């Protein structure tokens, strides 16, 4: 432990106030000699500082390569890649996504690190300082090899992204993987960038997080926009990654959907106007792209004036075609099957398009969505009830079923509840909240991240102006 102490500045030193007095000639001579001595000391300090600065730039030819580059190369290759003389072992529990672990296991990946390097991360610095304090108070000894386990708290955190973040503590070589455009616009690159941002946020590496954020903004394309929509629509996203990062990425997704996607479709097909022919491939491609979006993003973009469409009638026809494709996707699934995937959950619930005339403050098109009702599930339970109570009057049974459907606390598919219809009867539900969405909480907390099962996420909470960060909606019954 390093102890620090503070003392009051000496009398007559800078920043110290002294009482005025009448000085004798001898006293004046003493003050003059003292000031001269201080000037000499300051000159020596300036000379030493200048000499140190001049030596920080070695003369050409003195070293064949940069000395600092050699040190970084040594630390990176022998310290991180080979893990020689490691005294900190980090066990990363994967969330079942990403590539298999570096040790051949799909559950835990082991990284061999060094405490003196790891404390460049405020996250590790805090954990090790706490362990050192515990050791001083009779806890486990800190002299040996330390083992730390990071639970699987965010499905975006993969071994590849975490490895890049850890490697950046030793040198900047691994960051070149972030700017490599050889696989730009692919799901693989999207997953890597999201993982690096997740790891950088966890370890409190602000420069790396800023780099990953910039690369994500540049990576939004027709192939990756759905990935990023789901990523930033998580209700816990802003809490986990910070409001500034959340706003940046949501704005990037919104700008691409309102402007960039039409531009990309036109460039791909070599046309100047995607709206000219609704039977042409460019228009159909645009409809297909929008049909895959989460409902909140579809609604926000299509209703936005930033999404340039020749007229409200064209906007209405476009929205109708998108909703029709989504409806066909819903009916194509098994009637009694519960939505099992995120993609199928996005399309759950009946959607309609409304057109209003004479509006000046907004577009005349509105997309509405009804809440999901599991009629088959209720009828199945009702039929079982009839079999167990054959003497009950059928009319009474029918009334019971109606009361069950009209209950003010109707269970939604994700286990949450709402309290009846929204006043306008057309409020959309919040983004789907599968088990993975709650896992991204706690990244900004300095203690080790806790498992998703210990955290509570309000899947309906949406704050601000972007999907996933809007006011709280209540699903219409």
TrEMBL record:
<feature type="region of interest" description="Disordered">
    <location>
        <begin position="372"/>
        <end position="463"/>
    </location>
</feature>
<feature type="region of interest" description="Disordered">
    <location>
        <begin position="1"/>
        <end position="64"/>
    </location>
</feature>
<protein>
    <recommendedName>
        <fullName>BTB domain-containing protein</fullName>
    </recommendedName>
</protein>
<feature type="compositionally biased region" description="Basic residues">
    <location>
        <begin position="27"/>
        <end position="37"/>
    </location>
</feature>
<dbReference type="InterPro" id="IPR011333">
    <property type="entry name" value="SKP1/BTB/POZ_sf"/>
</dbReference>
<feature type="compositionally biased region" description="Low complexity">
    <location>
        <begin position="399"/>
        <end position="410"/>
    </location>
</feature>
<feature type="compositionally biased region" description="Low complexity">
    <location>
        <begin position="38"/>
        <end position="48"/>
    </location>
</feature>
<feature type="compositionally biased region" description="Basic residues">
    <location>
        <begin position="372"/>
        <end position="398"/>
    </location>
</feature>
<feature type="compositionally biased region" description="Low complexity">
    <location>
        <begin position="1"/>
        <end position="16"/>
    </location>
</feature>
